[in-house]
Amino acid sequence: MGWRIKVEPRDLRDLLKRFKNPANYGVIENADIVLEETDYSCGDKLRMFFKLEGKRIMDVKFTSEACLFCNASASLLADLVKGKTVEEALNVKEEDLLRLFNTDSKSPRYRCIVLPLRVLKKAFQGL
Amino acid sequence: MPLDPYTVREDFPILKRVINGKSLVYFNNAATTQKPIQVVEAIKDYYYNYNSDVLRSVNTLSSQATDLYMKARRKIAGFIGAGEDEVIFTRNTTEGLNMVAEALSGRIRIGSVVVTSIMEHHSNLLPWRRIVARKGGRLTIVGMNRDFTIDMDMVEKSLEEGCEILTTLHISNVLGTVNPVRELSKLAHKHGCLFILDAAQSVPHMPFNVKEVDPDATAFSGHKMLGPTGIGVLYVKRNILEEVEPFLLGGGMVKTVTLETQVYEDIPFRFEAGTPNIEGVIGLAAAVDYLHKIGLENIAEHESKLVKHLLEGLDRSIVEIYGPGEADKYAGLLSFNVKGVHPHDVAQFLDADGIMIRSGALCAEPLVNALGASAVARVSFYLYNTLEEVDRFNESLKKIRLLV
Predict the structure, then answer these.
(1) Which H helix or E strand runs over B345?
(2) Pairwise CB contact (< 8 Å): B374 & A65
(3) Which residue numbers in chain B have pLDDT < 50?
(4) Chain B CB within 8 Å of residue A62 CB
(5) Domain for residue B36, yes or no?
(6) A9 interface with B at CB cutoff 8 Å
(7) Among candidate residues B271, B292, B313, the one where a domain is terminated
(8) What is the pLDDT of residue A5?
């Protein structure tokens, strides 16, 4: 996947620099699926846009009112699933995202990091 | 004598902890407070020496436990100037407010109005919304003045139009502003309306007496005032308690049961079915003793000193402060945002310096949204916080400038 980020508190600065204007942020005008979810425990609000050709994911973008971790995770997830099939995307696990942040489900930012994956799974449900 | 936080801190072992290499600064007291040795010891003493059922058995241990329990109840009731039969033990403020809403639902009919405010914690909004929806009533939500307290003109107008229940919070858990509760209760009663008060953020931090404030019911939590979690208090005026149905039926709340019928216990016991949270009540009474020893006026004064110091140190060029912005308008808490940085990221940044704060919608999403935010960062003080800690906070926050 090419991303190696280690998110210790002291690296927050690097993370912010890197994801201040995250890749894949924005709108897909003619998206096939648009889905918005809010995590009510932390307040992160995330909207994801998916462009498909058959079962292949051609493009993914997102807009948000969310923290750095949620934005970074959405940005990375978009890169990860672009060009893959819906089925392959549905096989991405929470652990795959958490690993990118060098953390696990005990992290205080767990919910922020996995929100994009929850949106994706809901978007592709039944496809 | 003014409060000396350094003496107070000796009673709180957790404050000696080192987190992320720094000594712990605990600024999340509006969520829950730390517990002094005296509270933990009281609970330990109960379990080591007196543990039993209460108000039931005829044996020495049970009567000693009952004695401790009843003394604790008197102490806790006395803390807010209530009669001991007007205090019902709950789990927390949320449970108390839900119980009041359900208990008073009999007063809500088709077209009845309940008035509340945009400032409310979800726990004083959702129960009322459900009741009015179920009974065909209406919920009126009044706004705020420019000073970020409840809009009294709008309250009065709503009450004039006819209203059964006025319910609001005392101190906002987001803004830290203090609502004029005496005026609110007078106004409500003038219009023949009940006044329900969410006192979760006030009872722990300032002198509070139900005889002065005169709410018909009020709720607060033990864990926000040095007590254990899982114990809260619901005060309800005697005449109302006498007329409402008990919430839970079963053991401990009946005088006699036959196969055909039953006679309920007197108040307050008819509202406390089942074995109560004895350790919680005893722990909370120890917390009340502790707060009495320090003095609620002293605590309020100390917290306002901390808020003033905080406001002086905040760099307004990068920080947006919510609420009136003048130190004397805040109780011991304040919410803010660092421009361009999400509050969760601010919280994590401070966490790296050992400083614990709360971020998010603070269980008051409509209010946070009305402030033009989706989430905020909040600092909330208590008696053990120091000016030095506020300096550490301000220094740490200055480093965020590098992120913006």
Answers:
(1) helix B343-351
(2) yes
(3) none
(4) no
(5) no
(6) yes
(7) B292
(8) 54
